[in-house]
């Protein structure tokens, strides 16, 4: 049986986290590949997906393109610093920061799903948990118009039962197990990226 999307994603994220554990530089190419699975995941979020994918996918594609010039995230950021274009629209470093925030969103969403044991009612329903994760990460960066758009699409986000079928996972235990792996890995990955920004004295509240 071919691995499901969530299994591919959990393996890619775990391998990235392993580089952190081994005190190695995280490479751009596998990072971009891992993030491409988030793009695929977004496509299963109903009408909201086009809005999300149109913003996120080009940033991941930019990082994939950057991997042809830079081996590691650290060297990629150094290249932008040397060119004095870190904060320029479309810079690799700016896209890395914005992609990191989406990883944080996925992390928070999956944490909620794992913590509530895949319960699909009331505040534990996927649309409610998805909105909560979005607000936790992006509330300070997005204006009222964008927040209203996300709120508008909230009722159209699939339920967890539908999500289970869409992702072709066997059962709730299977999907929670993969999400737990991603949560543990994503926490290490985003901390690693935060440390890179701090080490270069760039901060991460500007994009």
Automatic annotation (TrEMBL):
GO molecular function (one): ceramide 1-phosphate binding
Glycolipid transfer protein domain segment(s): 27-167
Secretion signal, residue range per the UniProt entry: none
GO cellular component annotations of the record: cytosol; membrane
InterPro entries membership: GLTP_sf (IPR036497), Glycolipid_transfer_prot_dom (IPR014830)
Record-linked PANTHER family: GLYCOLIPID TRANSFER PROTEIN DOMAIN-CONTAINING PROTEIN (PTHR10219:SF43), GLYCOLIPID TRANSFER PROTEIN-RELATED (PTHR10219)
Name under which the protein is recorded: Glycolipid transfer protein domain-containing protein
Organism: Papaver atlanticum
